[in-house]
Specification:
Structural class: alpha/beta
Bound molecules: pseudouridine-5'-monophosphate, manganese (II) ion
Order of helices and strands: EHHEEHEHEHEEEHEHEEHEHHH
Low-confidence stretches: none
Number of helices: 11
Largest sheet: 10 strands, mixed
Radius of gyration: 17 Å
Mean pLDDT: 96
Shape: globular
Amino acid sequence: MTEKAMVALESTVITHGLPYPHNLTLAQEMEAIVRSYGAEPRTVAILAGELIAGLSSAQMSYLAQAKHVRKVSRRDLPIVVARREDGSTTVATTMWIAHRAGIEVFATGGIGGVHRGNSFDVSADLQELAQTPVIVVCAGAKAILDLPATLEYLETCGVTVIGWQSDEFPAFYSRSSGLSVDVRCDSAAEVVALWRAKQALKMPGGLLVTVPVPSEHEIPAAAIEPLILQAVADAEQQGLRSAQVTPYLLSRVMELSGERSLHANLALLKHNAQVAAQIAVALI
Ligand code: PSU
Ligand code: MN
């Protein structure tokens, strides 16, 4: 039980997910939204090897402009700590650090998942959801991933997937994926009830709350799919692997689809911050 309503925010979306200056404005806006709902924002990152849950505004503006900051997932954590390097945290490492800082709720855009055409490329985000007790609020996963395989993997890991006011698993830019969630929640209190039940059962791991992008910013699957196919083909042609794949796909889809995808991305991140803050407040 926490005394303060807190919401963790990740930093890979700042360093690798969005272009400057949109990344900085977005990070600041997400923090302001969390505060306006009565919770405290804690943006997570690693600076000079130190794990930070709650960047200052100077640290945030440094990170938003820094070049060559390492994207730190679970396996990278000992490296940046030992070498006292800077790093931005993925969903996996943000969960890990948030939990150790006593934070139970985390808002992000999209989680990593199982990659299309390469079922051995599975984001460490999924394993983290299996192990670390944090409620992750996201817009589902980008259709750059294999969404049915991602849901199967979450099922194997025992992660309950919640649809926020929705029966369907959202596909980031699109509200619909044709895939069902495990349970629908229409209010923060319903999410809290599931969380409390999971805790009472002493089960490890988090909960995934998936929030469809606000309708006015949605990009229909038919419009985005050809661009995703193009980006996936380009990534294959370049022979990218491991941690490079996701950032490349994110920036290539953004390049191919332009302003529209940027605006959808910003809108869903801000909306997710609202939902996460409501859940954090309901937990107190
Ligand atoms: N999906 C997005 N935007 C992002 C990411 C994923 O739509 O910014 C980032 C998140 O930080 C996520 C990470 O945790 O990419 C997953 O990377 P990988 O697939 O290498 O695990
Ligand atoms: Mn990967």
